[in-house]
């Protein structure tokens, strides 16, 4: 009886429950457990892992899981689960260190995640799945269009012409292609508006772009007339 | 003392400098109130929305120096939307209108526009000092206005601000007649600066004692600067990328060795790690060293440098120094009073120091009283040891990167460890805690932390009792900030009068509901209870049982503020 009680207490103590340690479940802990959204639950939500409800895992296990998630284990890519405002380091400092790191690292630099997402989704009409690009990898629209062309070449639609999708963001091709079934690169900015790619300076674009969408000309009818006009006057830098 | 003429009293009050003491003086009797208020030169306003600028000017007509703080502390960590508030323009406008003889402005976490900087530069002919900490909303054009128009400028100190950089022209705006600079800090600017203008400025500033450069200043210019300003006391090196075999480097070494009055060193925003030995000669003079932005310096180089810093009182460093490095700090820096250990890679979530480093510091540094420590893990045993060794802590901020991590050895909550800290450190004024923490730690805090003024809590506690222990027990509490804790209306409403004795309360991702907040606002008209809901504009018909995501309340004599954006609802 004693032993049983002892082990049960031990288990409870290590459980990530909300009772006071050693208190064996007095009070309204059950209700409290459900209410508290601890750090682990917040991380779980972000990573779509099993929910914390009822606190099944032992505390130790939970810590292990979190450590696995958050440690720089070269065998596993670090999980980029970011709870807002954690760790409590001033954004100025975080940004400064991130910039320093990316300028010293060679290949897989840790880019600045957070509010100005540098990884943006690229969707294309008719494509079965989306892709992602890191805008910080490019220094100009020209580079981006090259990369997008390669990325989406697997989705080549026959009527893009002999050069394939590689050239579809090329300025002069774009003008030629902007007739009915052809493609217009657009992006969603910080305010949620859909804009034509290429209007603003590159740096400003990187700061404000949230996602990219390669629209069909017919889809972009609201944009297309302007786009054609802009294409005529502008050069992708 | 009532028999003394006013001028004598005023002269005596001149020796009373701290705001707290002056507040006490002004409460002795009416005549003292009048004299003190009319002669007070420096005013500190901890919350710019607690009082209107007009009232401040009315009470303190002799005002020369103003310090204002805007956004709540958690704004530093992106928990407060950018346009929440903290605009300084109304204050400057009011001061300008009343022709206040302002000489000094210090702002923290406020929004200041270029127009505002321009207004400052034109409205106060004796303006001498501008210190901006964690501010935003301005560009280098605003700085150009300050440089152009403030003829007696002594200090321009920009710390960790978010400045839109329109490139170096502002430095050329200091007129040739400007020779009064004592302190210039532009380390936080990201862009190019006009190097020739910088050199000329320094050459004509014989009183320059503090200079912090950004990383756009290359080595040869640094060398020129050091030769022209050998009396510098505080130096912030921007870029330190060099080739140890070059002549430039050798010249630099000579220049550094000339700067024997440098007591404070910082920067190294860009650094080639193998050339730090040039600084070893001035290290023994240093009392303050900030290498927390020098991510290019490896642990071993750091340790080599530290071994020469025997007089250090203040050290800000990255965790790549490691526990071993902290042991070197402990054995070398016997005068150390304040240390901050920051995570080198805040995104990865792994820190390179543990409880061992903390214990080493507590053993080796008898004068240590202020610490900010980001670490990988902690134990109760370590905290208890630290508490025993160092009862003189006044500021104790511990951040375990995994905020709900228990004792790394016993898997227990860290209640006992922090309990020991508050029990032993009777002068503790500021505390922030992380780790697995239950209501018990708050019981200890309420019982023992009698001098506590600021408490930061995250992911801690079990029930409303936790918060209640703190509100009940900490008589001197001024600022309480809580995130992701299970504290609800019962705790919030337990003692509503308490909030008028405090500057502010922040609660986010807790259990407080709209109903609780409304009830509080109703009972306490002299509090602004703000609900911040950045996702939608406030739905006035919202269900009262809804939990409030972010609540910020503060005492105020100015009523609900008129500049609140749409997503802020003052109840």
UniProtKB/TrEMBL annotation, chain A:
Stretch list, region Disordered: 1-82
Mind listing the UniProt keywords for this protein, alphabetically? Auxin signaling pathway, Nucleus, Repressor, Transcription, Transcription regulation
* Chain ranges of the PB1 domain: 117-217
Does the record bear Nucleotide-binding in its keywords?
no
Q: Which GO terms describe its biological process?
A: auxin-activated signaling pathway; regulation of DNA-templated transcription
Return any one Pfam family short name: AUX_IAA
Classify the source by domain of life. Eukaryota
Q: Which InterPro entries match?
A: AUX/IAA_dom (IPR033389), AUX_IAA (IPR003311), PB1-like (IPR053793)
List locations, semicolon-separated.
Nucleus
Write out the biased-composition intervals (Gly residues): 21-30
- What are the record's GO terms for cellular component? nucleus
> What is the documented function of this protein?
Aux/IAA proteins are short-lived transcriptional factors that function as repressors of early auxin response genes at low auxin concentrations. Repression is thought to result from the interaction with auxin response factors (ARFs), proteins that bind to the auxin-responsive promoter element (AuxRE). Formation of heterodimers with ARF proteins may alter their ability to modulate early auxin response genes expression.
Protein family (similarity comment)? Belongs to the Aux/IAA family.
Oligomeric state and partners?
Answer: Homodimers and heterodimers.
Q: Please name the PANTHER family in this protein's record.
A: AUXIN-RESPONSIVE PROTEIN IAA13 (PTHR31734:SF28), AUXIN-RESPONSIVE PROTEIN IAA17 (PTHR31734)
Its recorded name reads Auxin-responsive protein
- Which organism was this protein described from? Salix dunnii
From TrEMBL, chain B:
Task: Quote the pathway field.
Answer: Protein modification; protein ubiquitination
Sample GO molecular function, one term = auxin binding
The record's keywords, sorted A to Z, are: Auxin signaling pathway, Developmental protein, Nucleus, Ubl conjugation pathway
Task: Give the signal peptide, or none.
Answer: none
Q: Which domain of life is it from?
A: Eukaryota
Q: Name the SUPFAM superfamilies on file.
A: RNI-like (SSF52047)
The GO annotation for biological process reads: auxin-activated signaling pathway; pollen maturation; SCF-dependent proteasomal ubiquitin-dependent protein catabolic process
- Coiled-coil portions: none
**What are the subcellular locations of this protein?**
Nucleus
Which terms in the GO cellular component ontology are assigned?
Answer: nucleus; SCF ubiquitin ligase complex
Q: Which Pfam families match?
A: F-box_5, LRR_6, Transp_inhibit
UniProt cross-references to Gene3D superfamilies, sorted A to Z: 1.20.1280.50, Ribonuclease Inhibitor
Q: Where is the F-box domain?
A: 4-45
Quote the protein name from its UniProt record. Answer: F-box domain-containing protein
From the broadest rank down, the organism's phylogenetic lineage runs: Eukaryota, Viridiplantae, Streptophyta, Embryophyta, Tracheophyta
């Amino acid at each position: 009886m004693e032993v049983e009680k002892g082990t049960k207490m031990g288990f409870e103590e290590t459980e990530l429950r909300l009772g006071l340690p050693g208190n064996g479940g007095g009070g309204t802990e059950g209700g409290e457990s459900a209410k508290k959204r601890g750090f682990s639950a917040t991380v779980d939500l972000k990573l779509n892992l099993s929910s914390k409800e009822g606190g099944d895992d032992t505390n130790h296990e939970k810590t292990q899981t979190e450590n696995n998630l958050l440690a720089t284990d070269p065998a596993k890519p670090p999980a980029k689960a970011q709870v807002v405002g954690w760790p409590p380091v001033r954004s100025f400092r975080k940004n400064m260190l991130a910039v320093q790191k990316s300028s010293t690292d060679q290949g897989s630099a840790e880019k600045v995640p957070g509010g100005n997402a540098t990884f943006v989704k690229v969707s294309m009409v008719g494509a079965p799945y989306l892709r992602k690009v890191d805008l910080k990898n490019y220094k100009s629209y020209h580079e981006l269009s090259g990369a997008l062309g390669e990325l989406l070449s697997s989705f080549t639609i026959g009527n893009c012409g002999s050069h394939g999708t590689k050239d579809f963001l090329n300025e002069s091709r774009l003008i030629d292609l902007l007739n009915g079934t052809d493609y217009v690169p657009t992006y969603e900015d910080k305010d949620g508006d859909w804009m034509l790619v290429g209007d603003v300076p590159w740096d400003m674009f990187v700061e404000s772009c949230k996602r990219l969408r390669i629209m069909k000309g017919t889809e972009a009818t609201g944009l297309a007339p302007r786009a054609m006009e802009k294409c005529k006057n502008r050069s992708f830098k | 003392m009532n028999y003394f003429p006013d001028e004598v009293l005023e002269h005596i009050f001149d020796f009373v400098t701290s705001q707290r003491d002056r507040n006490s003086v002004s409460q002795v009797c009416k005549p003292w109130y009048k004299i003190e208020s009319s002669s007070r030169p420096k005013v500190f306003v901890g919350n710019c929305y607690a009082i209107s600028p007009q009232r401040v000017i009315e009470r303190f007509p002799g005002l020369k120096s103003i310090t204002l703080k805007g956004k709540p502390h958690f704004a530093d960590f992106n928990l407060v939307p950018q346009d929440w508030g903290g605009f300084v323009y109304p204050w400057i406008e009011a001061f300008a209108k009343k022709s206040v003889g302002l000489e000094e402005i210090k702002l923290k976490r406020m929004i200041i526009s270029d127009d505002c900087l321009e207004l400052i530069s034109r409205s106060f002919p004796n303006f001498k000092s501008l210190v901006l900490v964690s501010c935003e909303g301005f560009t280098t054009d605003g700085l150009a206005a300050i440089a152009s128009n403030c003829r007696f400028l002594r200090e321009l100190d920009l710390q960790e601000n978010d400045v839109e950089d329109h490139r170096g022209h502002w430095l050329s705006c200091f007129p040739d007649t400007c020779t009064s600079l004592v302190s210039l800090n532009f380390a936080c600017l990201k862009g190019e600066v006009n190097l020739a203008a910088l050199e000329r400025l320094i050459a004509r500033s014989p009183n320059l004692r503090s200079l912090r450069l950004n990383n756009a200043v290359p080595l040869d210019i640094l060398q020129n600067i050091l030769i022209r300003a050998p009396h510098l006391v505080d130096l912030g090196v921007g870029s330190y990328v060099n080739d140890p075999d070059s002549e430039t480097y050798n010249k630099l070494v000579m220049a550094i060795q000339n700067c024997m009055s440098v007591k404070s060193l910082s920067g190294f925003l860009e650094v080639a790690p193998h050339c730090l030995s040039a600084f070893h000669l001035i290290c023994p003079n240093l009392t303050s060293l900030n290498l927390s932005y020098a991510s290019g310096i490896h642990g071993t180089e750091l340790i080599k440098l530290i071994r020469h810093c025997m007089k250090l009182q203040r050290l800000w460093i990255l965790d790549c120094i490691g526990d071993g490095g902290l042991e070197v700090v402990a054995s070398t820096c016997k005068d150390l009073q304040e240390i901050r250990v920051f995570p080198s890679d805040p995104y990865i979530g792994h820190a390179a120091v543990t409880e061992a480093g903390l214990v080493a510091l507590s053993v080796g540094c008898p004068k240590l009283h202020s610490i900010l420590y980001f670490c990988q893990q902690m134990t109760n045993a370590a905290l208890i040891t630290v508490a025993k060794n160092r009862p003189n802590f006044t500021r104790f901020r511990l951040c375990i990167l995994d905020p709900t991590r228990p004792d790394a050895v016993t898997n227990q909550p860290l209640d006992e460890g922090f309990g020991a800290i508050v029990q032993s450190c009777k002068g503790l004024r500021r505390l922030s805690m992380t780790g697995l923490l239950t209501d018990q730690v708050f019981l200890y805090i309420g019982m023992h932390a009698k001098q506590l003024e600021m408490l930061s809590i995250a992911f801690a506690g079990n029930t409303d009792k936790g918060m209640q222990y703190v509100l009940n027990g900490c008589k001197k509490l001024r600022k309480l900030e809580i995130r992701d804790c299970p504290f609800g209306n019962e705790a919030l409403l337990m003692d509503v009068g308490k909030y008028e004795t405090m500057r502010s309360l922040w609660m986010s991702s807790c259990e407080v509901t709209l109903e609780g907040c409304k009830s509080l606002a109703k009972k306490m008209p002299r509090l602004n209870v703000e609900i911040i809901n950045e996702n939608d504009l406030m739905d006035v018909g919202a269900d009262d049982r809804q939990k409030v995501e972010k609540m910020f309340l503060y005492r105020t004599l100015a009523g609900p503020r008129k500049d609140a954006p749409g997503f802020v609802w003052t109840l």
